[in-house]
Amino acid sequence: MNEEKIIVRYMACRRCLGSVRELLTEIGFTDFKVELSKISFNRELSESEKRLIEGELVKIGLELVSDRDSMLVESTKAILIDSIYNTRPAKSISINEISRKLMVGPSALIKIFIASVESQIKHAMWRGYGQYKNISDLNEARAELWNLISRSVPEAEAISKELNIPAREFYNEVYSSLDITAVEHNAQMVYALQSLKEKGYTLCVMTNSGRIHLDRILRKLQLDEFFDYKFSFEDNDFLRKPDKSCFNNFLTVVGESAEHVLAIDDSMPNLYVCYNMGMNTCITSNGLATPPMFRELHMRVEHLKPDFVDFETFDLSNFLINLL
Fold first, then answer.
1. Rounded Cα gap, residues 95 and 297, in angstroms
2. In a 3-state reduction of DSSP, which class is residue 208?
3. Is the CATH number 3.40.5.10 carried by domain 187-321?
């Protein structure tokens, strides 16, 4: 007898598992096993049965995934959740352990996860826009939104005018919908930031994402208390790095001169702006390239440390500890 397994996105808690078991029983399925991110059947499913399950899962906020990368992402989340919440005592698990379990190289797994986050943000934008415009087809919503923001008018202004709502309301909805299940607490980073604070350093964080997303991530990482200033997409008047206005706003709010700032980023264009403004700079690896190379996430290119950058690191928490 052939067994069939299907991978389900967002099925990451006991309540979800119970809801899915109940749903499958109600629509007539038997001999199945529901686990984190996965449903196993003791037989092969027909295409009509898969469509039926997919349609019912959508009604409770879940969705099937079929491409390899998405399956790996959901399987990784299941491993992380199990190690943290279902193992007593809870234990940490390394990327190498996960890669061995899934039989995928660590660097490949990291690249898949980064791409997954980018894809989540894009889909959340399309979905949110479609809901406001009553467009059910995601491709249609994507095309209309792209046409709207590709004009000369700033993105936030164009969206606000088209939807007749404050831009902040739209972006709050988009960023609050992102799945951060796989974000892991990093004890060494907590120690590094805590030590810097105790030494009197002023710590700031700037992101091109929304404030809601920034706060959720920092709370999940247990780093929220260490930052004196936080700058999000909204805080910078809906402008994103490497726009110089973002860094000017930062210097104004913090009240510090550029030469007293160390800017740490994984993006060469962002650091180039900081360098030209007189800041000290450090490029940190995002894990997408093998040292000594760095990889630009959005430009999809690899490079060595640029000459204009003062420092480089492939282990940010250790770099920060060595500043002390």
1. 20
2. coil
3. no
- CA dihedral 262→267→269→275, nearest 10 degrees, is 10
Find out whether the peptide bond into 292 is cis, omega within 30 degrees of 0. Answer: yes
Query: What does the pLDDT read at residue 29?
Result: 92
**Residue 231 phi/psi, 5° resolution?**
-125, 120
Residues in the chain: 324
- DSSP E strands in 149-206: the ranges are 204-206
Going by the DSSP 8-state scheme, the letter that residue 225 receives in this structure is: G
Distance of alpha carbon 324 from alpha carbon 194, whole angstroms: 11
CB of 274 closer than 8 Å to CB of 260: no
Task: Give the model confidence (pLDDT) of 40-90 as tens digits.
Answer: 999 999 999 998 998 888 777 677 877 665 666 666 666 665 665 555 555
- pLDDT score recorded for residue 118: 57
Q: Domain 4-68 has what CATH class? A: alpha beta
Q: Report strand pairing: 311-313 vs 38-41.
A: unpaired
Q: What is the DSSP letter of 295?
A: E
pLDDT for residue 5 is more than 70: yes
DSSP for residue 261? -
* CB within 8 Å of 269: residues ≥ 6 apart: 241, 242, 296
Give the tens place of pLDDT for each residue, 252-298: 999 999 999 999 999 988 999 999 999 999 999 988 788 898 988 76
SS3 265: strand
Residues of the chain with CATH 3.30.70.100: 4-68
Mean pLDDT of the chain: 83
113-144 tens-digit pLDDT: 555 555 667 777 878 888 888 888 877 888 88
Q: Is 231 left (phi over 0), alpha (psi -120 to 50) or beta?
A: beta
Structure tokens at 57: 């899962």
- Retrieve residue 243's tokens: 């726009």
The tokens describing 108, both together, are 């490949």
DSSP designation for 278: T
pLDDT recorded at residue 38: 86
